[in-house]
Specification:
single chain; 267 residues; Rossmann fold; 8-stranded mixed beta sheet; 10 strands; 28% helix
Amino acid sequence: MDYDDYDQSFASAPVRYALDDHDSDEENEACAQLQKVTVQTNLIIDKKIIEDGKWTLIFGLSGPGSVYLNSLENIKTTAVGTVDRLFENEDARTKANIFQVDNQSIMLFLFTKEIQAEDAAPYTKAIFNLFKGKVEKVVVLDAFTATGYTTETWNQDMVPPLLRVLQTSSAPVIKNLPLFEIPNMIKALAASIVNYCEMYSIPCYDFLTLQESIYGKLLVNEETLEAYSQGFHHLGLDFKFNEQTMKQVLSDIHSGRVDDNHHRLYL
């Protein structure tokens, strides 16, 4: 088969390149919307307290992560701020509450809703800019499901509590915790935080607990959260959760569920 354009100065461009300059109306609208969004981190404590410390930042993402931090037992905390999303500098909506563990240089970020992937970078920058040069390590409380998870162990029976860890290159290896295997991927805010920490050589651990589901509804129970406690134990942090508090949090905040698509069943 002969290709007449092979000897030309530039061969015929593939179709996907030919269409690169023709963004859809939906894409243009999404970009315009994103440009109008700002994220602010507001603290009600003296900034000098931040500057004088070396902080551990713990992110409880919407789902089991935030439920875990809301259910901590024998850990006294003080509310010190919020992370707010503003559209055109108005209509501020709180997306995360910030708590400091009393008498410790530990900040907890409890996200009330899932952060969309396109908003992840502004949230990451807004938070880390506040602690620039003052972060000792970062822990992200994340989750994954067995469906679609790729493992090199043949016929492995994945049963919670089960934890996988993805860490940055500057973080000391936790030998007793299995790594989140390649080619599995994290996404949205978790990916943004880990990527930021990798770029700035901040030790970061993404703790991914196995989260079960039934009829498309993601479940949170004692086994789901117990995996996080195992991870914190290896980091030397004595964090434990209270089962009764967990059930109350699920009832009050999530109406007994965690995901936003509890009413949908896909066949």
